[in-house]
Amino acid sequence: MARPRLILLIRHGESEGNCDKSVNRHTPNHKVPLTQKGREQAFNAGIELSRLLEKQDRVLFYTSPYLRARQTLDGILEGLGDYNDHNYAVYEEPRMREQDFGNFQGGPEKMQRIWKERAHYGHFFYRIPNGESAADVYDRCAGFNETLFRQFQNHKFADVLVLVTHGIWARVFLMKWFRWSVEEFEGLRNIPHCQFIQMVKGENQRYTLTTPLLRWREGDEDRVEEIRKAVQFRSGDLGKEALAYIVAAEREAAAGRSEGPITYDDGDDH
After folding, report:
1. Looking at the domain covering 6-106+131-216, what would its CATH class be?
2. 155 among known catalytic residues
3. Is 68 one of the annotated binding-site residues?
4. pLDDT score, position 246
């Protein structure tokens, strides 16, 4: 068995969908491109990756097929510069796509209702109409993990595995790998754009998550702003009353989430 010494997850760079709150009404989600800032973030991530690699490392990249993820990978490879072309391979993996929030998303009233329901129902199990729940994403991650474990049986497997993906998918992947509860998953904040999440292999062949993840706490002041950006992005302009309702529902849900420590080490062998 040849498990990689390092597994890196990275969320795509800033996309037009992160800035233009109406883009998903007319552009398919898988075709949303990066902004100029997002391309710069991807290039800088490539420079950062070059510092994490050892001279003889063989690197395997898996990327979501969504345009913003593939453009992020392109930027990373550009940022790597003179790194030996023969030392890495690239594959697209459809199971690494982001949670599906529906095809072309509806108008403000419809999306307000969906976000209110999601806040009360719970982010993990709530299924977006014509889309997915995070639980559906979990099933995809489980299948992908099994594929990785089979590939780890090959003694020629890469030294470093890099997964270029999306915020929800990355958190669900970690939830599956480290066996976190639903409450622990729902208590996690999103991952910043183009930040590497590092899983380091120990002498016992198990992995430790060395990148701390931010968690929501009841009463977080910046939670209001992040929720506002999320619902405005997917719903159009919301009134203060509608936004306050969603924030209150999110805070109520946060109060019931686990506050115990998250496990950052593998349990039994996978």
Report:
1. alpha beta
2. no
3. yes
4. 72
